[in-house]
Design goal:
Helix content is 24%, strand content 28%. It is built from 6 helices and 18 strands. The longest helix is centred in the C-terminal third of the chain and has 24 residues. Bound molecules: iron/sulfur cluster and zinc ion. The site of iron/sulfur cluster (SF4) has 14 residues, from loops.
Amino acid sequence: MMKHDYGEIFEWGLKDGKVIHIDNVENGLACNCFCPDCEAPLVAFNRQGNKRVNHFQHKNKSNCTNSYETALHYLAKQIILETKSLTVPDIYFSLSSYAQSFYGVTHTSERKINKQILKFDKVEVERSEQNFRPDLKCYINEKILLIEIAVTHFVDPDKREKILNKNIPLLEIDLSEFERAIQKDKLIEIFRGKIDKMKWVYNPKIKERHQFAESKGAIVKNYISKNLDSHKIYGKDHNIYDCPIYKNIYDKIKVEDECYRCRYFVGEYQGVYEIGDEQPKFPDTTLECVGHKANEFDKLLKSVGIKIKE
Ligand code: SF4
Ligand SMILES: [Zn+2]
């Protein structure tokens, strides 16, 4: 955006507390608009036949350079205030039915993101929440959701800390793509479900879901670590002769054909040393699984709410 003595030129001004596009106001000072940022009077240049694109500029000399970003903030807040609605990411956590996914990883649960349409009973603009001033404070019944509109300034660790202490959900909407041009219809599109532009800085409900899933995962992980059994893998063909599941049907099975897609498979090792060992823990190629406890393992999965894919 071009700069001159009268500050930047821009397409959105402030009229009666609302942002308004240059095409929808009277020409000149009669537009009765003010700069969204410094609140100084604006002149509208939108007469038909103008050589330059329609634009506002400050009436008087100005160093104001932030009108664009402030207008975007205003418009975003205005849309949510008027529609009282927002489609947000809703995050769930699921646990796999495969023993392997519980072993040697920090998180046992897998994130799944859905969309959730929220309808607000009330929306307030920039109401202080004790020592924190979010862009929007939205109410659903008695519950509060805070919204931050980010263009160039995103929620910093200090703000994040404040919100964690309050235990109130805070959603950040990333509008940095509009830094140079504001398009109202694109903004509406984001608020109606472009959830990749949204981030939960904090959400106690989602955090609780995560902790719940992880606690179930820890039960399974603990069971596996106490019930692992090892099976020697033979030869170039990678055969196993003592598979607890197939031993009555086949005399041998091939690891690649059966074990890698088996729910009870945990891992495959060769020559792993543990601290202090002179000999490797697994001198031969070895596979670990919980196949010998198949029924018990399945029951455990079901007891913690994991659906088993047969
Ligand atoms: S992982 Fe499955 S197929 Fe392989 S040995 Fe264990 S129970 Fe058998
Ligand atoms: Zn200004």
